[in-house]
Amino acid sequence: MESERDDPHATLARLDAVATTYTDAPRGEGWYHVALGLGSGVFIASQGLPQPWASLIAVAFILVIPAFIAWWRRTHGWWVSGYTGGATLWVTGLMLVALMATGAWSYLSSDVWSSIAAGLIACIAVTASGFIWMRVWRSRLRMRGAA
Asked: pTM for this one?
């Protein structure tokens, strides 16, 4: 038997209950992706900075993520993990590969400008991945809900 979490009809009902549909981007969604991209870019770029700055920015980034998720839940009434499976998992996986590659590049670079370039690429990759992830997730719900 399918759990409520895996049932597309239950998911759609929950979304409708909070006056948000999966076909329209909720208020603030675009800014969420941009802000997460900027934070990720700063985090990646900071890996090329001397200590203690690299560590302080990394810790700050890690501490802000739960607050970011809480903001989304409070504003929209729901949250969906990036690790839901299917095509969305591929989008998340590709984003993580981009983050690991740019993070290694920034950490191993010999100058700060190279780290800034890595951070810029990470910012673009995370922002774009967020928009793509939501589009794929909504499409998946529509297809499963129509079945």
From this structure: 0.77
